Amino acid sequence: MKRTSLELAVGVFVFISMLAVGYLTIKLGRMELLQGNYYLVNARFQNVTGLKAGSSVEIAGVPVGRVSGITVNQKTFAAMVEMKIDKSVVLTDDTIASVKTQGLIGDKFIKLSPGGSSADLKSGDTMVETESAVDLEELISRYIMGKV
To answer: Looking at the structure, do residues 24 and 42 belong to the same domain, yes or no?
Structure first.
């Protein structure tokens, strides 16, 4: 009888441990099993050097979304960044998107600066007011060549 209860207790412990590991894997890996509570917004940039899918999207330092994909527009050769924005955050059509550097390591993220317009961005809309990433290599080479 004691052996059966011990085996049952170990089995329950292993089962709960596996559930906890699965939960942490999904949360830390930022995976989404079901339709998330977000909407998609695009932004057109001339340069997104260092920005990656999964990078943070922030307003006033508060994370409000993630970069879900980066592609190149074949007609204009501009970088198109697709962002997942939390549905509780309402962006206006004059919101400015900027590629910024976070910390000394140089991780890139998108900083959103809301505007004062009364028209809201809908899912699938594109932001055209953007500020591209600063390319330090290009700045240094301009300085060295005297073209600053």
So the answer is: no
pTM for the model stands at: 0.69
Q: Are 58 and 112 in contact (CB under 8 A)?
A: yes
**Domains: count for the chain:** 2
| 113 and 95 Cβ atoms separated by less than 8 Å | yes
Kindly report the CA angle at 97 between 40 and 143, in degrees rounded to 5?
140
Angle at 20 between CA 14 and CA 23, to 5 degrees: 140
Q: 25 lies in which domain range? A: 1-31
What confidence tens digit (pLDDT) does each residue in 121-145 have? 888 888 888 887 777 777 788 788 8
Residues 104 and 62 in one domain: yes
Q: What whole-number distance in Å separates Cα of residue 107 and Cα of residue 58?
A: 13
